[in-house]
Design brief:
Keywords: Kinase, Transferase. InterPro entries: ATPase_NBD, Carb_kinase_FGGY, FGGY_C, FGGY_Carb_Kinase, FGGY_N. Belongs to the FGGY kinase family. This is Xylulose kinase. With about 525 residues, the chain is α+β, with helices and mostly antiparallel strands. The protein is built from 18 helices and 21 strands. It has a six-stranded mixed beta sheet, sandwiched between helices. β15 and β16 form a beta hairpin. α15 packs across α16 (about 460-470). The longest helix is centred in the last third of the chain and has 27 residues, at about 380-405.
């Protein structure tokens, strides 16, 4: 008898495996953290075997913790990073580490794309603003800079395809929602763009074909069963890209709804029935995990990872105190931040550790601080890190509503950041509007589980699964006095970024970094 469904989120800094009952209640979680590699400034790579090991360990962990009978789990869906790719041979052996979505190596290539395709035409075809952060420019980098690797590769796959193969998939295909950060999708057809592939000399045969998400691709193999603990023969399904899964898991399946996920990165996703005009190229349009639907998206590449950076770089006192008290260091860091004043006494933190993405797409933007005085302490600076992330997200909220032509009916919060009471209230106050919480804040993994359940026939449709499994609770109202302070600080934040951008400071700094350390 089927009592449960499972979902996997193969993230950038860790893999999460969750088991849910058929009402959407979280039964248990397993998690394994891993790291990325940074062989050169701006480069981000990852050993995809670390993801697989993390999934196996997290799967066994959740099964042990919950004591769920694996035979009572009816399906498994998977969510994975988008824009991350790895070349494999015919035996599915990775030929090198993955190039991760946040990798910024393709500056020269994006200039070539601009000169030979043009920003306007590229946006018209792909639905994406031109950026070196999309996989498209990095594929050109591989073709131009690593021709032997390109020639040797049988296929270039997203993490999801490789992980599904390890689990027991009998098919090889990708889906539109997983291609959102690839930058070479034809946004009208939701398939590979022959024009864009031809322009950079990328052979379509080296890419997996595109089908829809919510499709069963096989069952857990005997070997995968031994490694993960899941029952052999359990249906496995193509889920989708992480943020499209988060949209499903937060119930964003009609126009007018949006959700913001704060994880390693932060992403805002809204359902749209069709791409909208965006003359300034501020947001992305791509395939939703809802078959034959689209989404509108805005990105911040460094969000939760900035707080992790703060913890690892400056948080030794909190680490030591947390260890002695049996707490998480983040609890103490957040407590310090909560006791600091709104607006941080004029301190601004610029969180552009991996470029500024939506709505300005400046690949060479970097982080920094402004306004530091002797009046500032550890708590003020910790709060400043959190506020800086939300200021950048406000730029995305404004850009997406401008394109949509109206305010969103509701903004729902998900991801690790939604577990923080302070970060949730901060978002309501910075945006100046109510935000909505969900029973399950890890909407990405829930969305993967929903897609797996619909694909395996546990539910008759995504809509039915969402109705049964997605539940909201609690509207957080903004403190409008705080909003006034935040708006003043936000305007300085935005003006500072634009001033540095327009003065070419970020590009000059990138050139010096490359010259001496690159």
């Amino acid at each position: 008898m089927i009592k449960y469904v499972a979902g996997i989120d193969a993230g950038t800094t860790g893999s999460t495996v969750m088991i849910f009952d058929l009402e959407g209640n979280l039964i248990g979680t397993g998690y394994r953290e891993y790291s990325c590699k940074h062989p050169h400034p701006g480069w981000v790579e990852q050993d995809i075997n670390d993801l697989w090991k993390g999934i196996c360990e997290a799967s066994k962990e959740v099964l042990v913790r919950t004591e769920v009978d694996p035979k009572e789990i009816g399906s498994l869906g998977i969510s994975s990073q988008r824009g991350t790719f790895v070349p494999i041979d015919k035996d599915w052996t990775p030929l090198c580490d993955s190039i991760v979505w946040s990798d910024g190596r393709a500056g020269e290539e994006v200039k070539w794309i601009e000169e030979n395709i043009g920003r306007d035409h590229y946006h018209e075809v792909s639905g994406d603003p031109l950026s070196g952060m999309w996989a498209y420019a990095k594929y050109k980098w591989v073709i131009d800079k690593r021709p032997e690797l390109y020639k040797k590769a049988w296929k270039f796959v997203n993490g999801q395809e490789w992980l599904l193969h390890n689990l027991g998939s009998e098919e090889l295909f990708t889906d539109p929602s997983s291609l959102a950060l690839n930058g070479m999708l034809d946004v009208k057809t939701l398939d590979w763009s022959d024009e864009l592939l031809k322009a950079i000399g990328l052979d379509k045969d080296k890419l997996p074909p595109v089908k829809t998400s919510m499709t069963q691709v096989g069952v857990i193999s005997k070997m995968a069963s031994e490694l993960t603990g899941f029952a052999a023969g359990m249906p496995i399904c193509c889920g989708g890209g992480d943020q499209q899964c988060a949209a499903i898991g937060s119930g964003v399946i009609r126009e007018g709804l949006a959700e913001i996920t704060i994880g390693t990165a932060a992403v805002m996703v809204a359902h749209v029935d069709s791409p909208k005009p965006d003359v300034n190229h501020t947001v992305l349009f791509g395939g939703h995990a809802m078959p034959n639907k689209w989404d509108m998206e805005a990105l911040t590449f460094a969000a939760g990872v900035t707080l992790r950076w703060w913890r690892d770089t400056y948080g030794q006192p909190e680490k030591e105190a947390a260890k002695a008290l049996g707490l998480d260091p983040y609890e103490l860091i957040t407590l310090e931040a909560e006791n600091a004043p709104v607006g941080c006494k004029g301190y601004l933190f610029m969180p552009f550790f991996n470029s500024q993405v939506s709505p300005y797409y400046h690949d060479n933007a970097t982080g920094g601080s402004l306004g530091l005085t002797l009046a500032h302490d550890r708590g003020t600076m910790a709060r400043g890190v959190m506020e800086g992330v939300i200021y950048e997200l406000r730029m995305s909220v404004e850009a997406m509503e401008n394109v949509l032509g109206r305010p969103f009916e509701a903004i729902r919060l998900s991801g690790g950041g939604a577990k923080s009471k302070l970060w949730c209230q901060m978002q309501a106050d910075v945006y100046g509007r109510p935000v909505e919480k969900l029973n399950v804040s890890d909407c990405t993994t829930l969305g993967a589980a929903i897609l797996g359940a619909a694909g395996a026939g546990v539910f008759g449709s995504i809509e039915e699964a969402v109705d049964k499994m997605v539940h909201t609770f609690g509207i957080i109202e903004p403190n409008m006095e705080n909003h006034k302070i935040y708006t003043d600080m936000y305007n300085i934040f935005k003006d500072t970024f634009l001033a540095l951008k327009d003065a070419n400071i970020y590009n000059k700094l990138a050139a010096v970094t490359t010259k001496y350390w690159g």
